């Protein structure tokens, strides 16, 4: 199986690095890193360095490249770019895609699969989400924080049995990375469950300039994030996502499990004047709310505030 990891940031570095290491002892599988600029230069020169609780690991993929032609023949593309880079990356790689290519997005938000279906109509686009805390320490070096590294993927709209028949072998290959991999027919529930946590807390931590624990502790910010959770839950239910009845309580408890003063990735990007994903994480909810006839007044207010400080 030829696996191409698109984007070698925090998520792509962990996924690509673990896959390259786990599949290095076999000629049956090939892991390709598709990246560019200083990241590509660093990987070509020194390999990809992963720093974590288990120490330092340096891996070299079968190939690191920015040449679209090197993607040809890929059995699996894993997109791990930022949301604002996804559309352009998909357009660039489209000429190399065939009907035999499976695509899994591991991005924040819930819109990646629809973007990829539009840009890569020949491919078999699944949905996916990942739980991992990692960031780029410098080009070619990724640091993982904590031990959680869990991936969910699957094809919505087909049964568990059909998912197993089509993608069971792929799940077994991915598990050789050492990552916690779960193939599920309820992938829409998994993706939205993560989004219902990530979207409100990314928006409020960034706008209020407070960590997750500070948002929970301060009345104004907590009431804001609570209203956003209720609004995004209403949107998900309007889309017939089969969420648990107590998803709002689950979301708040998930936030309370983070270490004190933990910041969201969007908050960190804004603080460092980097591009942010506020459109795919917050703007998306506003736009879909209007389309579905679901009121999102708190989201509208937060989105307006974010537009003034984010890029």
Could you explain how this protein is built, in words?
The protein has helices at about 10-20, 35-45, 85-95, 110-120, 160-175, 185-210, 210-215, 220-240, 245-255, 265-270, 280-290, 295-310, and strands at about 1-5, 30-35, 50, 55-60, 65, 75-80, 100-105, 125, 125-140, 140-155, 180-185. Helix content is about 50%, strand content about 20%. Strands 5-2-1-6-7-8 form a 6-stranded parallel β-sheet. The chain has 2 domains: about 1-185, 3-Layer(aba) Sandwich (Rossmann fold); about 190-310, Orthogonal Bundle (N-(1-d-carboxylethyl)-l-norvaline Dehydrogenase, domain 2), CATH 1.10.1040. By secondary structure, it is α/β, with parallel strands linked by helices. It contains 12 helices and 11 strands.
- H/E series, N to C? EHEHEEEEHEHEEEHEHHHHHHH
Low-confidence runs of at least 5 consecutive residues: none
Total helical segments: 12
Number of domains: 2
What's the layout of helices and strands?
Blueprint: E1 2-6, H1 10-22, E2 30-34, H2 37-46, E3 48-52, E4 55-59, E5 63-65, E6 76-79, H3 83-93, E7 102-105, H4 112-119, E8 124-125, E9 127-138, E10 141-154, H5 160-175, E11 180-183, H6 187-208, H7 212-217, H8 219-238, H9 247-256, H10 265-271, H11 278-292, H12 297-309
Parallel strand pairs: 1-2, 1-6, 2-5, 3-10, 6-7, 7-8, 10-11
Antiparallel strand pairs: 3-4, 9-10
